[in-house]
User: Fold this.
Amino acid sequence: MKFHTLGVEGETYEVVDGKPQYSNGAADKHEMFQKTGFIEFLVTDPEYVASNEDRQTDLAVSEAFKDKPFVPFTAFDLSAEDRETANSLITGVTDIAEQFYVKAIMGQVDVNDDAVWNQYVQELNQAGLTQLLELHRKSAQ
Assistant:
């Protein structure tokens, strides 16, 4: 098996006249990885990284900032008290949103139904979305 370079013989490629031919019509291993969903292998493959402009930009930026201290990006400068409040609210809001996403993806809710959508927004607001937004608006002023 030559998974990282070719895949699995008989499944992702065949050897024809001594040369590998991808069975799904992919031109090379990069296209094969993208078509089969193995993108995590692709983005770490040295050959791909060397040939991909976006990955090269990421590496150049990382290199340029390697000696700088890590400071997480903070879009809002909340006071300690407001940050504590926001942290307590975000979990409930995020849980409701993620549950709704899953139900929507699985077809368990109709996102085009105004009653369903309004109920979702009401649940978010009851969990503290409005208060959370106000904290962020206040810090942005």
Remarks:
- The chain has a mean pLDDT of 79.
- Residues 59 and 115 are 48 Å apart (CA to CA).
- Helices lie at 29-36, 39-42, 46-51, 53-64, 80-105, 114-127, 129-140.
- The two ends are 59 Å apart (CA to CA).
